[in-house]
Amino acid sequence: MGIFDNLFRRKTHAIEQPIPAHMLAEAWSERYSMPDYSRYANQASLYAKLSWVNTAVSILAHTAAAVPFNVKQYNQEHETDIVSHPFEDLLHRPNPLYSRQELLEYTVAYRLVNGNAYWWLNIVNGTIKEIWPIRPSHIVPVPDEKLYLRGYA
């Protein structure tokens, strides 16, 4: 029993320790410190001017967008395709201007160039009606006072 008592004592001892004051002060001072998100626009501009980067990103995005997509349902050890799933139907025509290929190409290209990609979902009566890609340079995470993410602007 001595070993379990020691482990339990260590665990409760670690929980009871307060957060050091210097860590609290650093968290408080960094709560509004945000990185410069204009760098995504600068990166995209630079990569568009470098033909070899532009070519590589275009080939990868085009190839990734051409991969067939199926929604599957898993039951224990078996998987079955769900025919005409609402997300799959929406992905074929995500919005009035883009096709599935274009939406996925933009998404993959943004992810490759900037390290992140965003979609705006047009929700009507609780149902997603349209998907639009958003350039990462137009999205800014909004922190709250405890360094957690509140949302996006």
What does this structure look like?
- By secondary structure, this protein is α+β, with helices and mostly antiparallel strands.
- It is about 50% helix and about 20% strand.
- It has 6 helices and 6 strands, in the order ααααββααββββ.
- The chain has helices spanning about 1-15, 20-30, 40-50, 50-65, 85-90, 100-115; strands spanning about 70-75, 80, 120-125, 125-135, 140-145, 150.
- The strands form 3 sheets. Strands 1-2 form a two-stranded antiparallel sheet.
- The chain is extended, with a radius of gyration of 23 Å.
- Mean pLDDT is about 80; it is low at about 10-15.
What are the salient characteristics of this protein?
alpha+beta; two-stranded antiparallel ribbon; 6 helices; single chain; 153 residues
